[in-house]
Inverse folding.
């Protein structure tokens, strides 16, 4: 009975301790972000886009695929967005009379989704490869690092295009294919960090008290390389968004979904980029803002992983 | 040193072999009927059979694999059905068009990036550095096609200063090699795509150079050099910048890889008749022989560059001695 209570008490204390540590770490990261104007701007931009990604379809004034018609029944095509403003298409319309603003808002979802999921998968693979490779060393390391070399030998965009083309351009394939190439960055960088961590005394003491390899890798080393993993996760988000947009711009995007790349693809191929700035600028600027916000935060994280930069 | 280079060459061979195998797997054992990509609609049964036999697609997989390796290594790239001729008749012109665009873009981006990065590191903490970092991050956040579209809209369609695409005036027949690539007309067409590449690829070396520079400037020997009374620009260029360049060389090969991939996008935006656009078009039109050849060439270049970068690094940094 009493041991039961003590166990539970221990568990609670351990839980509280961990929670306290977590909130301390989070507070530390937040402190650095708050102290950095750029990173704060980045956080605000990202929160804005997250909001649009969640509620976009509800906020869009029109259905993005609707061919709007004016009072005379003609397709609402325009030479300037001021003409369509009174009709409720605040940023003008496409060559099919679709509302640009609605398309931009609905498209947020694709970029955010691909960016987060592809980065998550890529960093998950990369960090694990790095831990296993560096921790075990020797032959394991050799084989894994050769695979990373091969991944670096593949020209990124061409490889992604071929795979997406073969497996079909739906959003899931795009996510998996991008992740399948992006993991190499975190694998290589985190590995070298794990190599130095492995030499630290705490690893030796953990081993001395009989901690298992898995425990040392994931409970002792991993938390110490976490900032670096976070940094590469941020980079991965940025690159995943850029590559998804590039794919869509080249015509390999998911045809069922609206995305910024797709909008620019349509604007380019209909020849509208010759004059229709109101159609070209919004998706491009949004794309740039979202990626920029991620890089702004990444820059802050870089200062955490590399304190020398803070001079 | 010799041992390291030998080891690196062996690794290169393994990597290259794996790359070729992957290429084979991707293009042949992909889901769906692997033979269907070689058959055109409207072919009769005999014609189909004949095509399959000619391509050797009806033979067992391992035999195909060996044949494929032998063919690729002898640079027999197969036949493009879209052009109705051997791939090699088309691809080499495209290859040089791409190299002549992306090569200079990459070089200029690197030189400028290193210069800007060194400057940002030098003036760290100032408003100038802040501005520089923001601009670099903005450049890095803009995908190549977006920079390209902006330049195209501004300088080509709005101001009309530059042509909107292609490599030279229509109807312009280049008589010689020099005529083809050193004419003003060519440079005029090349300017915008080149600028697009420079803006995007400059960001990585600039940011790396900045962090590397800051770390070097914090080190003791710079303090000593300052104490010795060297003028600032000597410290900047002779001591700080030179020692900061090392990490930048390690990513050269990676940026080359990114730049080759980026050629797909830049060449599409500016209708540049290079390898990248060819790749996009041939994948779109199921011209697998062509797509595979482009992929093969690009991959070969990237793998070779990775190898060169590793070797160069050891020469540049005598402290690095791998077992």
């Amino acid at each position: 009975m009493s041991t039961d209570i003590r166990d539970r008490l221990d568990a609670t204390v351990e839980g509280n301790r961990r929670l306290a540590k977590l909130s301390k770490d989070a507070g530390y990261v937040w402190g650095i972000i708050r102290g950095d104007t750029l990173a704060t701007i980045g956080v605000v931009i990202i929160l804005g886009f997250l909001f649009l990604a969640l509620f976009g379809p509800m906020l869009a004034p029109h259905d993005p695929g609707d061919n709007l018609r004016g009072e005379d029944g003609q397709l609402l095509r325009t030479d300037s967005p001021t003409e369509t403003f009174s009709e409720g298409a605040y940023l003008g319309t496409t060559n099919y009379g679709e509302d640009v603003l609605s398309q931009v808002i609905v498209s947020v979802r694709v970029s955010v989704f691909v960016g987060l999921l592809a980065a998550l998968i890529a960093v998950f693979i990369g960090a694990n490869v790095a831990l296993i490779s560096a921790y075990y060393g020797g032959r394991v390391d050799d084989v894994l690092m050769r695979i990373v070399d091969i991944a670096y030998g593949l020209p990124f965009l061409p490889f992604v295009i071929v795979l997406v083309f073969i497996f079909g351009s739906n959003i899931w394939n795009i996510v998996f294919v991008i992740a399948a190439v992006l993991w190499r960055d975190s694998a290589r960088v985190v590995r070298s960090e794990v190599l130095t961590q492995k030499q630290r005394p705490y690893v030796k003491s953990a081993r001395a008290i009989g901690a298992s390899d898995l425990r040392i890798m994931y409970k002792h080393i991993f938390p110490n390389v976490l900032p670096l993993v976070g940094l590469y996760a941020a980079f991965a988000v940025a690159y995943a968004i850029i590559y998804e947009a590039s794919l869509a711009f080249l015509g390999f995007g998911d045809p069922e979904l609206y995305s910024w790349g797709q909008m620019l693809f349509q604007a380019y191929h209909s020849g509208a980029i010759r004059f229709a700035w109101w159609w070209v600028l919004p998706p491009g600027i949004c794309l740039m803002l979202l990626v920029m916000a991620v890089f702004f935060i990444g820059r802050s994280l870089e200062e955490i992983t590399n304190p020398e930069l803070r001079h | 040193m010799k041992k390291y280079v030998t080891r690196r060459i062996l690794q290169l061979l393994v990597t290259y072999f794996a790359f070729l195998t992957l290429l084979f797997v991707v293009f042949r054992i992909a889901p769906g009927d692997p033979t269907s990509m070689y058959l055109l609609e409207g072919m009769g049964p005999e014609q189909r059979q004949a095509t399959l036999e000619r391509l050797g697609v009806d033979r067992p997989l391992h035999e195909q694999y060996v044949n494929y390796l032998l063919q690729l290594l002898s640079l027999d790239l197969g036949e493009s059905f879209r052009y109705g001729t051997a791939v090699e008749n088309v691809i080499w012109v495209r290859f040089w068009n791409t190299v002549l665009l992306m090569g200079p873009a990459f070089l200029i981006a690197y030189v400028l990036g290193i210069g800007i990065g060194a400057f940002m590191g030098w003036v760290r903490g100032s408003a100038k550095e802040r501005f520089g970092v923001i601009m670099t991050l903005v450049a890095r956040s803009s995908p190549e096609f977006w920079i390209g579209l902006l330049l195209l809209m501004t300088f080509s369609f709005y101001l009309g200063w530059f042509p909107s695409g292609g490599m030279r005036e229509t109807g312009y027949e280049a008589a010689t090699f020099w005529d083809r690539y050193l004419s003003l007309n060519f440079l005029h067409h090349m300017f915008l795509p080149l600028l697009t590449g420079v803006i995007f690829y400059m960001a990585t070396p600039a940011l790396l150079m900045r962090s590397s520079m800051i770390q070097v400037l914090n080190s003791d020997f710079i303090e000593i050099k300052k104490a010795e009374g060297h003028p600032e620009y000597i410290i900047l260029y002779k001591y700080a910048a030179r020692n900061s360049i090392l990490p930048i060389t390690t990513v050269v090969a990676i940026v080359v890889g990114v730049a080759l991939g980026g050629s797909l996008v830049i060449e599409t935006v500016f209708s540049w008749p290079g390898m990248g656009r060819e790749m996009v078009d041939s994948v779109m039109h199921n011209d697998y022989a062509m797509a595979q050849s482009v992929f093969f060439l690009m991959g070969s270049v990237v793998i070779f560059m990775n190898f060169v970068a590793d070797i160069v690094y050891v020469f540049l940094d005598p402290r690095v001695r791998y077992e």
